[in-house]
Specification:
Elements (H helix, E strand, L loop, with lengths): L11 H16 L6 E2 H7 L5 H16 L3 E5 L2 E4 L6 E8 L5 E4 L7 E3 L12 E7 L7 E9 L4 E9 L4 E6 L8 E3 L12 E8 L8 E9 L4 H11 L8 H8 L7 H4 L3 E2 L5 E5 L8 E7 L5 E8 L1 H4 L5 H9 L3 E2 L4 E2 L4 H7 L7 E11 L5 E12 L2 E4 H10 L5 H20 L9 E6 L5 E7 L3 H22 L13 E3 L5 H12 L10 H14 L6 H11 L4 E3 L23 H14 L7 H34 L6 E10 L2 E5 L6 E5 L8 E4 L4 E4 L5 E3 L3 E10 L4 E6 L3
Parallel strand pairs: 6-8, 14-21, 15-22, 29-34
Antiparallel strand pairs: 1-3, 2-3, 4-5, 4-7, 5-6, 7-8, 9-10, 9-12, 10-11, 12-13, 15-16, 16-17, 17-20, 18-19, 20-21, 23-24, 25-26, 27-28, 27-33, 28-29, 30-31, 31-32, 33-34
Length: 717
């Protein structure tokens, strides 16, 4: 093979490409030894010239230590090279995957041939190969830790064989699960099921599993909602022992406990919540002081009084970490007896609370503050609509109190925006449901003054609690352990891409510093209101932002413009708030700062569960949208292009929020190419362009309830 040892630069690029093919092929069975003929056969390089290139490429891979020569002319993948990394695998719809490694900015691309037995979310060991000018590519060597072993899918019985397969609804699931005889759990062909993976033998194409739950017929409402819960491992019911412990809680208000608290029962107090709310986390109190200032109390349900660390109730709450709000039901973090009764700040009832009490002057400047446990009596519950009515009409009970709070909130909001907060105010889709939970209408939740009123006082409490723990009286950091809500600065590269893109529409952005970026973003969001490009630019601006998470490291909250921020105001539905309550009380009692490590873990867990809940909520909205659009098959709508990819683009119908896919292969008038920079696809002959934000007319062609997917077709105008 010596003649192939030397090669010119001219062939270098070609050899890199062949090297990539060779590594993919050899990685399918990374422990196998191959000769060059088997390799050439495996990558379909069979004629003499091609084989010569294979030989040259093998020498190149040898010199780079990507493969080893076990004996003359015999090759094996080199698994003992520096390029092995550990990360989490994420599959796309095409069956390829990306591995996210903590210490790397870029994800590692894994071709579908090289994923081995890895499944969505698994922790994997990968070997990487660098190709000049290309992104890093790699192969899975082994699965280190399974993310899960239970999956949702449709059972397909192989008739006359008495075995079957479970086919996942998720396109990111890379394989079907084999169900042997006697392990089908009573499932019939076509049933939606939960399957538990038992084994995946080396060399086998499919893992083996056992059906542990039959969910019902695909497409049916209850089946699909329970499928979403099962898919994300969300338990709908509480274990019996947790319910029993919750039922046994003492619900009485005791004098000896009241004596330890600040008694605020005589002060005007009320809640403002959505009209269908059952759990009331927070209440506001207001009274005018003799000096003319206002005392505003932000009162939060004292969940930590009832849910004690080390109890099975607390363990269950931590495991869930958050309530999950699906379209037609809530999966609560705490049993109903706590969330809707004991802890809930219901009207005309005395309740234990944890409060942040502020003295504000008429300019909404804080004159003093106090944090601690209280007891309150809520005089009234308002729906947002009722509070809004008082703001707009200046009539009704408690109108003066609501108008004062509204005026102060507007000052706080204005100051916050001037200080660098970003004002994304996107409306959220909601459904009108009939008695059976079927969608009969769609509307959008729009934030009005009454929503902003509550939001501002909750933000104030969250920020001030965080500052109280984190800074001493002189404003010097205490380094006390706490759980923060953090939001990192946007990725500069994404901001530059946004600036360049909006520049084509005549908008400018100043990226000189953090404050200028915030000002530019707010101005941009204001300037695009009502314009054709509003949806597109707002979408791109959102995508340029980081994701907010929980952490013990107080790096600040970029979107809100706060240096210190924590979640304190919703302990009924968020576990981090419960942690914040416990730590705040610990510091109020003069306690020393605990070790960070335990809270680091808790922060990561709560962040992961929040993402899970968000994904489940998104799936339930998609399902309802598809269900709603079933009634509109064959109808035409005006829509806006909401996303573009190399295989097609998505169109959203503004009047109901439904989103459907237009596949490029279905566009018969031309051959289209995707341009990532301009978020558009271009026709090579016609010059037709479909770009993010463009308005198009579509026809609803298909509504797939199981895939939660709508297929649209472009209608030429």
């Amino acid at each position: 093979m010596a003649k192939g040892k030397y090669f010119s630069d001219k062939n270098n690029h070609k050899l890199q490409e062949i090297g990539r093919l060779i590594l993919r092929f050899m990685n399918e069975k990374s422990g196998k030894i191959y000769n060059y003929k088997q390799i050439a056969e495996g990558i379909d390089y069979k004629n003499p010239r091609q084989r010569e290139l294979v030989i040259q490429s093998l020498h190149k891979l040898l010199s780079e230590k990507q493969i080893k020569e076990t004996e003359k002319g015999k090759f094996i993948i080199n698994l003992n090279i520096e390029g092995t990394l550990t990360g989490t695998i994420d599959f796309n719809q095409a069956g390829n995957a990306y591995v996210k490694v903590d210490q790397m900015d870029d994800d590692i691309f894994i071709h579908s041939k090289n994923v081995k037995d890895a499944m969505q979310g698994d922790k994997v060991l990968v070997v990487t190969y660098h190709f000049k000018g290309k992104k890093i590519e790699g192969s899975v060597l082994k699965v280190i830790e399974r993310k899960r072993d239970e999956f949702v899918g449709t059972f397909q019985l192989i008739k006359h064989k008495d075995f079957g397969f479970v086919v996942s609804d998720k396109k990111s699931m890379s394989t079907d699960i084999f169900v042997p005889r006697g392990k089908n759990g009573g499932a019939e062909d076509g049933d939606k099921v939960v399957v538990k993976m038992i084994d995946w033998r080396a060399g086998e194409k499919n893992p083996e599993g056992e059906i542990i739950k039959v969910l019902g017929a695909p497409g049916e409402h209850e089946t699909e909602i329970h499928s979403i819960l099962a898919e994300y491992g969300l338990p709908y019911d509480f274990p019996e022992e947790v319910e029993n412990e919750a039922q046994g809680i003492d619900r009485k208000i005791h004098d000896h406990e009241v004596a330890k608290r600040r008694d605020m029962r005589g002060i005007c107090t009320f809640t403002i919540d959505p009209k269908d709310a059952k759990d009331f986390d927070d209440a506001l109190s207001i009274q005018k002081l003799d000096n003319g200032n206002w005392e505003i109390g932000v009162h939060i349900a004292d969940v930590s009084h009832y849910v004690i660390p080390g109890t099975i109730l607390d363990d269950e709450a931590y495991k869930r970490a958050t309530s999950v709000y699906l379209v037609d039901r809530v999966v609560p973090m705490l049993p109903e007896v706590l969330s809707n009764d004991v802890c809930s700040l219901r009207p005309n009832e005395e309740k234990y609370t944890f409060s942040a009490v502020f003295e504000l002057n008429d300019k909404a400047e804080i004159q003093s503050q106090w944090f601690g446990r209280t007891v309150i009596y809520s005089d009234r519950k308002f729906a947002y609509e009722e509070a809004q009515q008082r703001i707009e009409t200046k009539e009704g009970d408690l109108v003066e109190e609501i108008l004062t709070l509204d005026r102060l909130a507007k000052i706080l909001r204005k100051a916050r925006i001037e200080n660098g907060a970003i004002t994304f105010d996107r409306s959220e889709v909601r459904f009108n449901l009939d008695d059976k939970g079927e969608p009969i209408g769609v509307y959008f939740k729009v934030s009005k003054d009454s929503n902003h009123l509550i939001e501002e006082f909750m933000l104030l409490a969250n920020r001030k609690v965080s500052e109280f723990v984190s800074l001493n009286k002189k404003g010097v950091p205490t380094n006390n352990t706490f759980i923060y809500r953090i939001h990192d600065d946007p990725d500069p590269a994404k901001l530059e891409a946004l600036r360049d893109f909006v520049g084509t529409f005549g908008y400018t952005m100043n990226l000189a510093n953090t404050k200028k970026v915030a000002e530019s973003l707010n101005k941009l969001l204001a300037d695009i209101q009502g314009k054709g490009e509003e949806n597109m630019i707002e979408t791109l601006a959102m995508r340029s932002m980081s994701k907010a998470i929980y952490s013990t490291d107080p790096i600040g909250h970029y979107g809100l413009g706060f240096e210190y921020y924590s979640h304190f105001t919703s302990p009924i539905r968020r576990y981090p708030d419960l942690i914040a309550h416990r730590l705040l009380q610990h510091y109020l009692d003069g306690g020393k700062s605990p070790q960070k490590q335990e809270f680091d873990e808790k922060s990561k867990h709560c962040s992961a569960m929040e993402k899970l809940a968000s994904d489940a909520e998104r799936d339930s909205i998609k399902f309802m949208q598809v269900k709603f659009m079933e009634k509109h098959l064959g109808e035409d709508f005006t829509g806006v292009i909401s996303g573009v990819a190399d295989f097609g683009f998505w169109v959203q119908i503004p009047e109901n929020g439904a989103e459907g896919l237009i596949k490029l292969r279905d566009l018969m008038d031309d051959s289209y190419t995707y341009d990532a920079k301009s978020h558009a696809v271009f026709g090579s002959k016609t010059g037709n362009k479909y770009q993010l934000g463009d308005e198009v007319t579509i026809r609803v062609m298909k509504a797939n309830l199981i895939q939660k997917q709508l297929d649209f077709k472009i209608i030429e105008s």
